[in-house]
Amino acid sequence: MPAWLTPPNILSGLRIIAAPWLGYQLARGNFRIALPVLFFVGISDGLDGYLARRYGWQSPLGEKLDPIADKVLAATLYICFAWRGLLPWGVSALVLGRDALILCFAAVALGLGRVRRFPPSVWGKLSTALQLLLAGACVLRAGWPTQPPEPVFLTIMWLAVAATAWSGLAYLHTAIGMLGRNGD
Fold first, then answer.
1. What pLDDT is stored for residue 152 in this prediction?
2. What is the 3-state secondary structure (H, E, C) of the chain?
3. pLDDT band at 106 (very low <50, low <70, confident <90, very high)
4. Could you identify which of 84, 99, 115, 125 might form a hypothetical disulfide with 109, taking C-beta atoms 3.0 to 4.6 angstroms apart as the criterion?
């Protein structure tokens, strides 16, 4: 087996492949079909990191593939949710904007040759988990309109918004610090 072909990389690849399929199902209103796949990709996001650490399957490819899978999935889901009216456009814009901020920093840092690694923070992991929970709540609510109840849904949404905004600010602070330290 090639060194890059590890279970964590396969799981990340499957998330990338699942994203357009999920987008198609959401666009067509097939929420009951999309929900189990969304559940799988949500679990796989945590599982790939666990497997990589537990069994020493970390790789340079995996360090890039996992966040790419997260961003492709988030962009697909949150554009679909806003388009279908399942979430306000502002919530989707926040999620996409945070990811764009991270990608811009990575591009600038790589272009300047100053930073080669930009590991995820605990805030980034928390916001991703809450974004996936919110995605599940959106799909659940669209397929079964009484679930989750409105107060639960709004709580999940506002927790995801707060964590996303906070992690975006934390990444920006970290990025400025990293570029400042490496610019000396």
1. 95
2. CCCCCCHHHHHHHHHHHHHHHHHHHHHHCCHHHHHHHHHHHHHHHHHHHHHHHHHCCCCHHHHHHHHHHHHHHHHHHHHHHHHCCCCCHHHHHHHHHHHHHHHHHHHHHHHHCCCCCCCCCHHHHHHHHHHHHHHHHHHHHHHCCCCCCHHHHHHHHHHHHHHHHHHHHHHHHHHHHHHHHHCC
3. confident
4. 115
